Amino acid sequence: GVPLLVEEVLAAEAAGTTAVPDHLRDLFVARVRRLDHQAGQAVEVVAVAGGRCSDRFVADVLECGGGEADAALERAMAASVLARDAGAYRMRHELLREAVYGAVPAARRRALHRRTAQILAAEGADAAVLAHHWAAADEPAEAAHASLRAAARAERMHAPAEAHSHLETALAHFDALPTADAKAAGRRGELLARAAEAAYLGGEFDRAVALAESALEEVHHPTLKALRWERLARYRWVNRDGAGAQRAHIRSVSTLPRDAPARARARVLSGHGWNQAIMGGPVRRTRRPKGPSR
User: Is the pLDDT of residue 140 over 90?
Assistant: First the structure.
């Protein structure tokens, strides 16, 4: 009965699980399937949207009249599938939303995400929301564009964890960007370096190291390569790899050309000096920076 259902929901939340237990999923999906076709479709739109939806938005996604959408939503609310807050509709519980979302056939789910993204884009929705829907719609180029915009905003807001997540999505879909767009967005190596820095600032040190190592493979300019080695050294250090950090600092100094800009030289040489001071003992000799003698 109801007490058992409440206990199961509370137990799932207490366990921190995001997956709906099979027996609850079956109960939830069965309730939705008892709805008429149009009400069931309206519920699917709300589940895919992932938040609160107006009747107008549901009507736009389903391409039906506003009155029809409103009536369908009301029937779903009467069946205790949806709830209404401040004139907008939402799923009654997140576990219910997950169950309904998982039951939507994959092709239809992609189509609903695509239509949702199109409507939200026309309304000027947040880039992070668009990135989610474009990715779920299997539209990689659009997902990359939106993710790059969302990452840039997160960087401006000093939100490294969000920036890291969006940059990872952009990198996953980077090859889908047209060549001109990929150049405008920054070469892959630059995105890898940005993602590494965001991961570092967000405390994801293992990932920062992996991304920085990949970024090194994408760069050939000696000054930039020296700077990338310096950042890798920093990431390795905070990731408790002192020996690896020292090796990276040595490579940064040996790679740095003599005619590198003063700012680059200051970063590389001060980083190396800091590392030697922390590690203790005499400063290890390294090869002189590349370039002609003065």
Answer: yes
Query: For residue 194, which amino acid is it?
Result: R
Structure tokens that stand for 92 in this block: 């009654």
CB of 114 closer than 8 Å to CB of 137 = yes
Element (H, E) at 83: strand 82-85
Q: Which residues lie below 8 Å from residue 22, measured CB to CB, with a gap of 6+?
A: none
- Which has the closest alpha carbon to 202: 180, 243, 235? 235
For 215-237, how does the pLDDT look when each residue is reduced to its tens digit (9 = 90+)? Answer: 999 988 999 999 999 999 999 99
Q: Which residues lie below 8 Å from residue 86, measured CB to CB, with a gap of 6+?
A: 52
Residue 112 near residue 48, CB atoms below 8 Å? yes
DSSP state of 283: P
| Burial class (CB within 10 angstroms; exposed 0-12, middle 13-18, buried 19+) of 34 | exposed
Q: According to DSSP H, which parts of 51-204 are helical?
A: 55-62, 66-78, 94-103, 106-122, 127-136, 140-156, 160-172, 179-185, 188-201
Cα dihedral angle (61, 65, 66, 68), rounded to 10 degrees?
A: -100
Helix (H, G, I), strand (E, B) or coil at 255: helix
The DSSP call for residue 290 is B
- b/e sequence 118-137, b meaning 16+ C-beta within 10 Å: bbbbeeeeebbbbbbbbbbb
